[in-house]
Amino acid sequence: MSRIRSLLFPWRGISLAATLATVAVLGVRYLGLLQGLEWAAYDHFLRWRSPPNLPPDERIKIVTIDEEDLHAGGQALISDRALARALRNLSTQNPLVIGLDLYRDLPVPPGQAELSKVLRETPNIVGIQKVAPPTVAPPVALAAAGRAKANDLVLDGDGRMRRGFLFLPDNKGQVLDAFSPYLALWWLEDQDIRFESLPGDRWRLGAATFEKFGAFDGGYIRAHDGGYQLLINYRGPGQQFEQIPFREVVRGKLPPDWAKGKIVLIGATAESLNDRFTTPLSGYGSIRPPIPLSGVEVNAHITAQVIDAALGDRPLIKPIPESAEILWVLLWSVLGATSVWHWRLGIQIQSLQRSLRLWVQQLFWPAGLLSVLIGSTYVALLAWGLWVPVVPAILSLLVASMGITLHTASQAAQLRQTFGRYLTNEVVTNLLEQPGGLNLGGVRQTVTILTSDIRGFTALAEHLSPEEVITVLNLYLKAMLQVIADYQGTINAIMGDGLLVFFGVPTPQADDAERAIACALAMQLAMTQVNQELDDRGFPALAIGIGINTGECVVGNLGSELHTEYSAVGAQVNLAFRIESYTTSQQIFVSETVLENVDRQQVRIDAAHEVNLKGVKDTLSVYEVGGINGNYQLELPRVEEQFVYLPEPLALLYVPLEGKSVSEQFLKGHLVELSTQGAKILGQAKTIQPQPFTDLKLNLLNQALELSGDIYAKVRDLGEETTGRAFWVDFTAKPPAITAWFLQMVVRLSKEQ
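^ thats the sequence. predicted structure below, dont judge the formating
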């Protein structure tokens, strides 16, 4: 079951990222914010697809009316007489059909009667009318003969013409053929190809199946979809149809058989007649304005498109269904999320370690998928005429990839934050962002080492449940770790109730020793608040001892590939632990090397001691620090310890502690003076005094010679009696009952004495 969960876990993140990306992209798409981008991408695909040097389509000819033709007639419009003469001259070559792409609802003298006669008597002339408001009526002769077709076209919001009509209703509800497709039918009927009605408002024409354009097809959002529209599949850029000026036709200077059996269109190309349109093939750019097509050329493209589609030579452009588009967007969301998830470890490492190679790896997959996406949509349009929206798919790919990237980067940040719970930000940065930061090995450098320990915590823990021990420790550690962070210490280890902290790791600083002393003082001062919280919860108070040493250590990554720790090792670290072991409650001991690295005038030294280290001949000087001035102004309160004489000394047994072991040599003595923190003990005659800093275990004896609970203490000093039997101790741990008894005794005797 766990294996199944591990296999499904990645897909949970992928599916979430892909779903959110798909919903977001579709939401943006349905708001219409991607429509312009999708139109531009579609236009670019059409231009890439169109060969620049196609030979002219021989089936369709165009008679153009340009500015020179207007000037030749001496008026703004071609006269009816000139138009009639041109139509008669064309008819002599027996064209298949003549498409008159000119609005002629009003006469243009002279020659109205001549033109009407030509239009009535020539059965293969087809004229135009405008059906959508504002309407333009057709020539009366053509309307009466049923040879006036709708010439409406559709401009998109960016002013480009991408759509035409197959047929559309007029204002009376009568369905009219569109002008260009109707001209194509003249060509197709000779090959016995006619429209056939299919279910679902579809039409078949030879090899082509026409489907009604929808308001959300392709890149459109809430587009006008009245009538029966089709997307225009332009044949190519430039002049795709052979053209001849109108004036040449009027003069009868037609090339031999130029119009024979052809579809001939007559239309305006003059700038002044304002019958020019920007199309997807017109191009984009501010330096070179888009090159428009005349209305008659647009009609010629539509006519050629219908013929080619019916013959199976060139497919119609068809948008994919909306449901397929949603699945398409979802697919690329999944692919984007999956590709990045596959390399998520690289992203996490990349977020932590700056690596050009990892950047290249991360860019390769999205770039590769982007290339496949664009290439596949282009091939779909090129080979099958399918308009597969590319912009929403690209956006979903990028959004899903970005979502996984942000997720993994967040995980990396959490990893860094988690790492930072064990090491300082400086160490994390050194490990993760410096070249070779994660390599095994180390370097020699000077480090200031601070160690601390709760006095008598082992004995204290015996009186608490495991859960209470953890609660006490966490309260204590929370305060101490915050203080250490404030003074930029590197917490190397938490050893139960002990702490090992480095200053100057990984980067040594001039004030490392000074900050270590200030940190130690702040830790001792923070114990007041810690003990207040412990008392509020019913726990006994804690006291800590701190030792500080400065020396050369080996700093780096220690271990193996299986387990690595960033630490400092060496004799100086061990020496810091030894110095700390000499402290009692609320004491801070530092070595000589620490004071060598600070301004001694700024440090309050309360006492100096010479200690003997096991296995070392020379003595070690340690100093008890009580305050520091300068930048920190921290000072421990001076407490005058008050001892009371016991009228009746308390019999006890004591035994030196060697490391964690208890000596077998039990010695007898009496507790003769007492304070809340320590006592004066008088040993039995001929008993050798324990040396200063020796740890002792004490047990009081009652009259029945029964032992009390264990009391732990450290020898502070030796008495001055000539007998050589007295020594002073500081208590490090006492059972709660004895603590209360000693306190009552000190208070009572203080009043009496």
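The chain is about 40% helix and 25% strand.
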